[in-house]
Design brief:
The chain is an alpha/beta fold. It has two domains: 66 residues, Ubiquitin-associated (UBA) domain (Helicase, Ruva Protein, domain 3); 197 residues, Rossmann fold, CATH 3.40.50. Helix content is 36%, strand content 19%. The chain has ten helices and nine strands. The strands form two sheets. Strands 5-4-3-6-7-9-8 form a seven-stranded mixed β-sheet, sandwiched between helices. Strands 1-2 form a two-stranded antiparallel ribbon. α1 crosses α2, α2 packs antiparallel against α4 and α6 runs parallel beside α7. The site of glutamine has 9 residues, from loops.
Length: 280
């Protein structure tokens, strides 16, 4: 390797050309930062900074894996959500920035300081942990049907020192009895056979976290049908869904007897979540 190829600037330039996808420069910076421990801002301020030959080799190996499609979060073992560094694994969905819209919407609700909150299908624990980080008085329970996801979410809670209890349960099926003031979920909502499942990072995520029947609504239907039995009077149900599912999800909420039903948009201005209140 020549001297020149060992500067941060030249390594990043080469990697950015090799990587395809939506954010090649950002991906390259995250990988180089992971390998060197240097901050992303330092790459801009000091592009001629040299890295060691070992660091350059480790970086180039990660870039090769990114080029063959592996998600950056899997290569780093970590993804930030709501400014919390979360461990990720191949057994769950990688938290998406748009899911932060659920957290924002939840924080706008008039929830008491001792509210009981449930996150169904928590995966890494993202939503539950973000909410717990905002109000230490809330009692946050999270569940997942996949044992390794339960372990991962519990591990994230422990590492971040956040008081979230994580249990194994397929939706409500194995939950201890009780009622909640807010139930949130980012369930699978992609239709089986959707072409997106063969493109990009989702190819490396488990279908158990993505696919929900012929129309993508099987899991949302199950959650909305049972939800009211687990809600306190005036408690809220909130689910993430696909950009084209708002109308169908609102109809499911209304059929289940929820009121004040409303769909909100994500950062890309597409329908992303629906919420409603259980009158009791
Ligand atoms: N928003 C994700 C995607 O389109 C899907 C997440 C989900 O099914 N819950 O990749």
């Amino acid at each position: 390797m020549s001297e020149l190829s060992l500067t941060c600037g030249s390594l990043l330039r080469k990697a950015t050309i090799a990587i395809s996808g939506e954010s090649p420069r950002l991906d390259a910076e995250l990988l180089l930062s992971h390998v060197t421990g240097l901050s992303r801002t330092s790459f801009r301020a000091w592009p001629e900074r040299q890295v060691t030959a070992t660091e350059a080799r480790r970086f180039e190996a990660l870039v090769q894996q990114r080029v063959s499609g592996h998600p950056v979060a899997h290569l780093l073992g970590e993804q930030e959500f709501w400014s919390l560094p979360l461990k990720v694994s191949a057994s769950t969905l990688i938290p998406r920035p748009d899911t932060e819209c659920l957290v924002e919407a939840a924080l706008e609700l008039p929830l008491a300081d001792n509210a009981r909150i449930l996150d169904l299908g928590t995966g890494t624990g993202a939503i539950a942990l973000a909410l717990a980080s905002e109000n230490g008085g809330w009692h946050v329970l999270a569940c997942d049907a996949v044992p390794s996801a339960v372990e991962l979410a519990a591990d994230n809670a422990q590492r971040l020192g956040l008081p979230v209890t994580v249990v194994l349960s397929h939706w409500f099926d194995q939950l201890p009895p009780g009622r909640f003031d807010l139930i949130v979920s980012n369930p699978p909502y992609i239709a089986r056979g959707d072409h997106h499942l063969n493109e990009g990072d989702v190819r490396f995520e488990p279908s158990s976290a993505l696919v929900a029947g012929e129309d993508g609504l099987d899991d949302i239907r199950a959650i909305v049908e049972s939800g009211p039995r687990w809600l306190n009077s005036n408690g809220w149900l909130m689910v993430e869904h696909g950009y084209d599912q708002g109308e169908a999800v609102r109809a499911l909420f209304e059929r289940a007897g929820l009121v004040a039903v409303e769909t909100r948009r994500d950062y890309g201005n597409r329908d992303r979540l629906t919420l409603g209140q259980w009158p009791g």
